[in-house]
Amino acid sequence: MKGTTLQKYRGTVMSLLLLGLGTSCASQQVLQEYQDEVRALREERTNLKKENRQLRLQLESYESALAEANMRTNEAPAETTQYAELDALGIPYGQRGANFVISLPNEITFASGRADLTAQGKSALQAVARTLGGDYGSGFYWIEGHTDADPIKKSKWGSNRELSFARAMAVLHYLVEDCEVSDEQCVVAGHGQYRPVAGNDSKEGKAKNRRVEIVVHAAD
Fold it and tell me: How do residues 98-123 score in pLDDT, each as one tens digit?
């Protein structure tokens, strides 16, 4: 009996030792995994700090470049065109072949269905006269009236051609009588709806077609 009891005791001790050894190995493995995770987190934090520092430096560089660009913009003189006065009044102009053309929209110069110059139209023609005298003083000015294709309804004019001619004549009289443009240099025409620059199937297109053009021809 004593031998059997001693054997059982020894077996139990051996089991406890083996269990303790296994537990110790498991604890060591958990500790190693924890240390590896902490090390990885520290490396990640270090990399994030470096990236954040680089982004901050890049942002400062961008802000410095933007401030310098704004300073150059503020210091740069405002760009002006040769016909800044016409630009300010919203008067279109440009080359058509060899001729310089100023196009006066009816929204500026005339009320609907009328051939009496508005106050805004008179101011526009004063600017036009200064442009003609300054750059095209020796040219011939063809003053050409145009309309959209809508038929005349509520107006004393019998046709769009008559209305366009009356408006061209009103421009001629103001340029000659009030702006000292030479009458000998002027030619007047009324084209009505027959020379559109846009389609007459929209409000925008019709508005572009209602105009008086001053076409500058070079002197022979």
Answer: 999 999 999 999 998 899 999 999 99
Whole-structure pTM value: 0.64
pLDDT < 70: residue spans in the chain: 1-26, 60, 63-81
CATH class name, domain 84-217: alpha beta
Query: Around Cβ 157, how many Cβ atoms within 10 Å?
Result: 18
Residues 80, 87: Cα–Cα separation, whole Å: 10
Cα torsion 170, 175, 179, 181: sign: negative
Six token digits for residue 210:
């209602």
Distances (CA, A) of 203 to 148, 167, 170: 10, 21, 25
CA-closest candidate to residue 214, choices 116, 124, 117: 124
Look-up: residue for tokens 């209305």? 163
| Element housing 104 (H / E) | strand 99-105
